[in-house]
Design goal:
By secondary structure, the chain is α+β, with helices and mostly antiparallel strands. The chain has two domains: about 100 residues, no CATH class; about 80 residues. The chain is built from eight helices and six strands, in the order E-E-H-E-E-E-E-H-H-H-H-H-H-H. Strand 1 and strand 2 form a beta hairpin. The longest helix has about 35 residues. The radius of gyration is 26 Å and the shape is flat.
Length: about 220
């Protein structure tokens, strides 16, 4: 990092501030990434997430992205991995870097412009289209929720997850995250249930030769 001085204008006149900024360029970030993985309970192999490239991290609200970028991208990689493979652990928990940046408040807003009848009519049509689009989004989300709740096999859960990914642009960030987490959770629930049923079905019936050996 490096320190720079900047001139700012305040109500009492111009003043100088010292800020710490990153000492590298965007080109220096190309190719740098972290990849998070862990062994899930009941498995023996590491489940790896997708590589998280530093150049692809757009929202960087924390000042630690300047002073300690390795730590920040590691934290972000862990959060992304956990949301994908064990969402129930941190469901609903978001850090400032995962939230869209707020728009700056305009201190001296421009005067309100008068609208013509044509502009008002156009705005009403736009609002109607937006309401119809919102209703369509709700219908798609409700259908996906019902499919998730009734999924009885891991293949169905995978297919639902793929459908959610294909509808990402329509659903928006909030609904996409909710449905994706539900689908992943349902996948592991169904997988665990199938494994338990397989073990139960493998138990021999009373009177069979294997039964005495198994419970000896």
């Amino acid at each position: 990092t490096q320190e720079i001085t900047r001139d700012k204008n305040g109500k009492n006149g111009k003043y100088t501030v010292t800020e710490r900024v990153r000492g590298w360029t965007d080109e220096d970030e190309i190719g740098l990434f972290v990849q998070v993985g862990a062994i899930l309970r009941g498995e023996s192999e590491i489940t790896w997430g997708e590589p998280l490239y530093l150049s692809g991290v757009v929202t960087r609200n924390s000042p630690l992205w300047v002073s300690n970028p390795k730590q920040q991208i590691a934290y972000l990689g862990v959060k992304y991995w956990a949301r994908l493979y064990c969402p129930e652990v941190i469901l609903g928990v978001y850090s400032p870097d995962e939230v869209e940046q707020r728009e700056e408040r305009e201190i001296n807003p421009a005067p309100v412009q008068r609208m013509s009848v044509q502009e008002i009519t156009s705005e009403v049509s736009t609002r109607t289209s937006a309401q119809e689009s919102a209703a369509n989004v709700d219908a798609v989300a409700d259908d996906l929720r019902e499919r998730i709740d009734t999924a009885s096999s891991v293949d169905q859960a995978k297919a639902i997850r793929a459908d959610i990914e294909s509808q990402k642009a329509l659903l928006g960030t909030a609904l996409f995250t909710e449905l994706k987490n539900k689908a992943v959770k349902r996948y592991y629930q169904v997988d665990a249930q199938n494994k338990v049923e397989a073990v139960i079905n493998s138990i021999p019936n009373p009177g069979e030769p294997e039964a005495a050996e198994m419970f000896a």
